[in-house]
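Journal club side-thread
Mid-discussion, someone asked how the predicted structure for our own chain would compare to the paper's figures. Pasting it here so we can look after the session.
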Amino acid sequence: MKIHYFQRYHAKENVATANTMLLLSRLYQYSSHKFFRFLSSEFFAYSFDPEIVFKLQEKSVDSIPDATITQESFKIVVETKMSDWFYDKQLMRHLNSFNDEKNKVLITLAPELMAKDKKGIFEQQLKRYNTTQNRPVIHINTTFEGIANAIQEVIDDRDFEMQEVLDDYLNYCNNDNLIAVSDSWKFMRMQLANNTFDFNVSQNLYYDNVERGFRSHDYLSLYKNKSVRAIGKVSARITAVKTEVGMQYEAEYGDVTEERKQKILRAISDGDEHGYDLRTIKHRYFFVEKFYETDFKKMTPRAPMGSRVFNLTDILGTEQLPITSDIAQLLKTKTWN
């Protein structure tokens, strides 16, 4: 059984906050440099250098010490909600948490972004408050998925340990409904499929251990030989495992049809050929409408170590995605690292 890093099934703000802080602390322990890159890119858009700086013979007002070790002061205050229920009076009281730090950030964190009118009212109050301060407080409104996406940007395929932690955080967020599915239409999940590629394409499905976390996505793609070779739009997600009374199927999305049951049984047989136990170990089966051939090349030398999620609107430079067959053709003109 997979050991999870994060508590589950506790729909409480303090648990969601604790899990998010645990994610950030794990990133810091894994790589302080990547942690500070995350802070700089996500919360400090202006000039900010939080990492410790070592200098020799730095001249001060009255002397030149042999060495100095410095770090810019900063403080981040977080207010978490399970929905868009932020109150401007509470947020204004949180400003008393700051002292004389050089960099101050107030984060409002929830599954969804604040409504524009609510955010505008608070930020007008914050603007008036900042006129009375030597150093302003910056407000960042973000989501649990936004935090995960920003961390994904600073780690890469070689950061296997941290990727596993991030996947488990996303799994927790999905289980506790902390990620809105409204943005899933723009995301494509890439899966490694060297051994099973031909079967996956012929059956229009992909299988994975049910314990593996994932963020919501409408498109599934398959990687083989230095490139994403196929893409399809997800039409159903079904879990299956063999029990004492026979096969047990559960629909997470879409319907459990007789045709899909037969494809799952064929997948189990295909798994046998590769040494995969799909019978007694519960797996998740992703069905797509159709896998379309593409060639979305990876330019860096190393093969990815696991799955990866792409924002198709960013890759294709559009806010409206075309039909899947056209996406497949457009990806042939793009590359990734």
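Post-session note: The first strand starts at residue 53 and ends at 56.
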